[in-house]
C-alpha cells in the first residue's frame, strides 16, 4: 500500500516524531496508519484507494467529508485544546488506547498532552513511558 503526502505535517510513528513533506511517498504499515488516522495523504495505489473509500464509508454515514490531519502542523496553535474540538478535528482516542495512538493524536499540542497526561496520572497504574513523553510535550 502506498500514499503520497499532500500537506507537510508531523506524526508520531513508533513513538518517535517524524516529519512528512509534500510529495513524499509512504508505503507499508506507515501508509495504512496515516490513512486510518486521517492524515493529509492521498492514496497512490488501488489498495490505498480501497481503504480510503472503506474508511470514508465507515466515518461519514452517507455524508461526504474530506479527511483532515490528526493534529495541527507544528506552528503556534490557539491553545484552546481539545475540550471543544472543531468538527474536522478527530476525536480523542480512549485513555486506554495504545501509547502510539495517544501520541499520534497529541502530536505537538501541549494542551492535548496535558489532557491525556491528567487522564493517565489518574489511573491506578499510569504508563511511565507515556507520562514522560506527555510531560515533554506539555511543557514545550
Structure, explained:
This protein has helices at residues 29-37, 46-60, 99-106, 110-121, 128-138, and strands at residues 2-5, 9-13, 16-20, 25-27, 41-43. The mean pLDDT is 79. By secondary structure, the protein is α+β, with helices and mostly antiparallel strands. The N and C termini lie far apart (35 Å). The protein has five helices and five strands. The strands form two sheets. A three-stranded antiparallel β-sheet has the order 4-1-5. It has a two-stranded antiparallel sheet with strand order 2-3. Helices cover 39% and strands 14% of the residues.
For the record, give the distance between the C-alpha atoms at the N and C termini, rounded to a whole number.
35 Å
Estimate the global geometry from the Cα principal axes: elongated
**Contiguous runs where pLDDT drops below 50 for at least 5 residues:** none
Chain-averaged pLDDT = 79
SSE order, one letter for each helix or strand? EEEEHEHHHH
Output the strand order for the largest sheet: 4-1-5
Count the E strands. Answer: 5
Strand content: 5-15%
The rounded Rg comes to 15 Å
- SSE class: alpha+beta
Helix content: 25-40%
Oligomeric nature of the chains: single chain
Number of helices: 5
Amino acid at each position: 500500500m502506498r500514499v503520497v503526502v499532500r500537506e507537510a505535517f508531523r506524526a508520531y510513528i513508533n513513538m518517535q516524531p517524524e516529519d512528512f513533506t509534500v510529495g513524499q511517498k509512504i508505503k507499508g504499515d506507515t501508509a495504512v496508519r496515516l490513512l486510518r488516522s486521517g492524515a493529509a495523504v492521498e492514496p497512490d495505489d488501488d489498495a490505498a484507494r480501497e481503504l480510503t473509500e472503506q474508511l470514508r464509508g465507515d466515518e461519514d454515514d452517507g455524508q461526504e467529508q474530506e479527511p483532515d490531519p490528526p493534529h495541527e502542523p507544528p506552528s503556534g496553535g490557539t491553545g484552546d485544546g481539545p475540550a471543544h474540538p472543531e468538527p474536522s478535528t478527530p476525536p480523542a482516542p480512549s485513555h486506554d488506547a495504545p501509547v502510539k495512538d495517544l501520541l499520534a493524536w497529541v502530536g505537538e499540542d501541549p494542551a492535548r498532552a496535558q489532557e491525556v497526561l491528567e487522564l493517565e496520572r489518574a489511573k491506578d497504574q499510569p504508563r511511565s513511558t507515556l507520562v514522560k513523553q506527555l510531560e515533554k510535550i506539555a511543557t514545550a
